[in-house]
Amino acid sequence: MSKQEKMSSKERQALITRLLKETTKPITGNEFSQKTNVSRQVIVQDISLLKAKGKPIVATSQGYIYLNKVEENKAHKKVIVCNHPPERTAEELHLITDHGVSLKNVIVEHPVYGDITATIHVSNRKEANQFVKKIEDASASYLSVLTNGVHLHTLEADTEDKLEAVCNDLETAGILVSR
């Protein structure tokens, strides 16, 4: 596609949907922007329109993913409550991902907004380190600072044993609040 050639909104949305369905890896807004010769902001708008049409697209810290409901239902899930200062975030993420467990999100309870959920989608040490680096590079705060360190995570694994091992390690580290 030449630099002058631009796709219509409908064509871009079809391409975005197709590419997300074809991969399990996140795709960034910048990658879509380059493929379609439009700004990242136009891609953000396209993604919002696709979500409004019911497409199960989720923005993660690594990019956009298309949720495959069939695969999602096969996994074992557990919601845990954690409490730690921001400087222990990398440790927490490593304890989780080193067991082959994926961390799907972080949830905090805000006094005005209620539950605030942010998709993280971290499945290995490399992704955990990238997430922490993005927070640092952006000089952003973790959501858990809103609740003095208390937060929930949805964990997902292919076996219950992995989830139990993660909980044991988090408890030993003094990060898990309760079972």
Explained architecture:
- With 179 residues, this protein is an alpha+beta fold.
- 42% of the residues lie in helices and 25% in strands.
- The protein has helices spanning 9-22, 29-36, 40-52, 69-74, 89-97, 125-137, 160-172, and strands at residues 57-60, 63-66, 76-83, 102-110, 114-122, 150-157, 176-178.
- The strands form 2 sheets. Strands 5-4-6-3-7 form a 5-stranded antiparallel β-sheet, with helices on one face. Strands 1-2 form a two-stranded antiparallel sheet.
- Helix 1 packs across helix 3 (40-52).
- It is elongated.
Please summarize what this structure is.
The radius of gyration is 18 Å and the shape is elongated. Helix 1 crosses helix 3 and helix 5 runs antiparallel to helix 6. The protein starts with 8 loop residues before the first helix and ends with a strand.
